[in-house]
Design brief:
Keywords: Signal
InterPro entries: CarboxyPept-like_regulatory (IPR008969)
Shape: globular
Strand content: 25-35%
Organism: Mucilaginibacter mallensis
Distance between the termini: 43 Å
Protein name: CarboxypepD_reg-like domain-containing protein
Helix content: 10-25%
Number of strands: 21
Radius of gyration: 24 Å
Order of helices and strands: HEEEEEEEHHEEEEEEEEEEEEEEHHH
Length: 326
């Protein structure tokens, strides 16, 4: 009887390990010369992240999965998933890709566009990439068409869950057309197929992730930014940027309008209820938010009471979503 009980316990333990409770990996990536490696890409079976400027990273993974580590200028490597993972990458100079694109290349033209520095002649030679004719060199431009002012690191996820990334792959997102731009050689540029890529994550200069998903319940053409998620609710932000041309007029006595072109972000927020599978557009108003979280009215009242003096803005909405999911 004792042997039977012991066998059962061992079987249960084996199954628990095989099924794999997720673990949180806290690790570091260093070069073979002992320096922290920034922007090393760390991937498990279905999750990924980058190392920060100190080489540190955190990743949720199945304990039975293999962890793949890649970085521009280093040889790829793999490691077992452990709670504390110390990775040393071997330097590979042959793998380095130049991070400064030629000015007349597609990647260089877009880099200028990211910073509103797109001369008219370059627009024509660039073959109208992404409809860049909205840029002008004659007027000051306020705001930006693209999410970032530089090419940034990130990764994509296909509809089947496959993570897509190479050590040299860089991105930027067009807030007007909803296109994700990719360059792998700092020369040529490609656009993703929205029917193939269901989501992507981009990392800013401070290593903060920006997660986007193609949510057909919100938009067929644009990706929506996931700003809060949990077991009950997801909160999305649809960034709808518009180009407003300068409209300055003067009769010598009075004047109207602006002397500058402008990219204006019009953000629309949605709450997705996981239980019902329904979306609800919400304004940044207490009444609208109360209606969106009516199923958790007690928790909502407690949150608003604790944050009575806080401004109801995007940060407030993110904190509210996180609290509703606790």
């Amino acid at each position: 009887m004792k042997k039977l009980m012991l066998s059962a316990l061992l079987f249960i333990a084996f199954c628990s390990i095989a099924l794999g409770q997720s673990i949180t990996i806290n690790g570091t990536v260093k070069s073979d010369q002992g320096y922290p490696v920034h922007y090393a890409f760390i991937k498990s079976d279905n999750n990924a992240t980058y190392s920060d400027s100190t080489g540190h990273f955190t990743l949720t993974a199945n304990p039975s999965s293999k962890i793949t580590i890649k970085c521009n200028g280093y040889t790829d490597t793999q490691a077992d998933a452990t709670a504390s993972l110390q990775v040393v990458l071997k330097t590979n100079p042959a793998a380095v890709i130049n991070k400064t694109p030629p000015a007349k290349s597609d990647a260089g033209l877009l880099l200028a566009a990211f910073n509103n520095q797109h001369p008219g002649d370059d627009i024509k030679t660039g073959g109208g990439i992404g409809g860049l004719l909205v840029f002008t060199s004659a007027k000051e431009t306020v705001g930006h068409r693209f999410l970032f002012t530089q090419w940034v690191h990130g990764y994509m996820v296909k509809a089947n869950g496959e993570i897509v990334q190479t050590p040299t792959m860089l991105f930027n997102y067009d807030k007007i057309k909803g296109d994700l731009y990719i360059t792998e050689d700092m020369n040529n540029v490609n656009l993703t197929d929205k029917n193939t890529i269901r989501s992507f994550v981009l990392f800013d200069a401070h290593d903060q992730p920006y997660s986007f998903e193609r949510v057909l319940g919100i938009s067929n053409d644009m990706y929506s930014q996931l700003i809060s998620t949990g077991s009950k609710y997801k909160i999305y932000k649809l960034i709808a940027t518009k180009f407003v041309a300068s409209n300055y007029q003067s009769n010598g006595i009075s004047s109207t309008g602006n002397t500058y072109d402008e990219f204006v972000d019009n953000n629309v927020y949605y709450v997705f209820h996981l239980k019902s599978g329904s979306f609800q557009q919400v304004a940044l108003k207490k009444k609208a938010l109360k209606e969106a979280f009516i199923d958790d009215s007690t928790k909502f009242t407690g949150f608003t009471s604790d944050h009575a003096d806080d401004k109801i803005d995007e940060s407030y909405l993110i904190s509210l979503g996180n609290a509703m999911n606790e």
